[in-house]
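Open question from group meeting: does this chain pack into something compact, or does most of it stay loose? Before anyone orders reagents, we agreed to write out a predicted structure and look at it together. Recording both the input and the output here so the notebook holds the full record.
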Amino acid sequence: MKFTAMEIGLAGAAALALAVAGYFGYRYWRRVKAERDRLRQFNAIAYEMIRDVLLPDGNESQVHVDFVLLTAVGLMVIDLRDVPGIIFGGEQMDEWAVMNGSNRATFPNPLGRLYDRMAVVRQIAGRVPVEGRVVFTARGSFPRGRPHRVVMLDSLQEECPLVDRTLDPLPVAAWAEEWARLR
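Structure tokens returned:
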């Protein structure tokens, strides 16, 4: 059986289309899996969670918060960062640097914005203790140590106790009104 040039071309185009679809499908699957892994880490320490929310800052403006977790010790404001490479930063530095191979980039110190987000949540939450962390994914690393309030996603559970949903009443029951106001 002999194939024509057009049939060979169509078969090649179909194979290329399948390869491209497979590539983008794999990238999508990896993103979804990474997101599930992040949420699993947060669910391990949180009874409830608010995600990607705009909160009023009291100055007729709003502040975006990545995550607010209701934990056994209060509220945890999470600023999630997915920065690939070696990160150099400190509490007093205006800009942090990241080296990824031969590329060097800078980004603003995330701690100032974290403190602003924590203040907004404190204002709404009233008597509930509020903590905050800038959480970096495993794609980044801090070879010279991390500043205070900066943690890696994998070690977040060391910062806050794991939830025990079998307790009656739950430790967070006292903060139900404040949590509802925040939601």
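Observations to bring back to the group:
The chain has a mean pLDDT of 88.
Residues 5-45 form the longest helix (41 residues).
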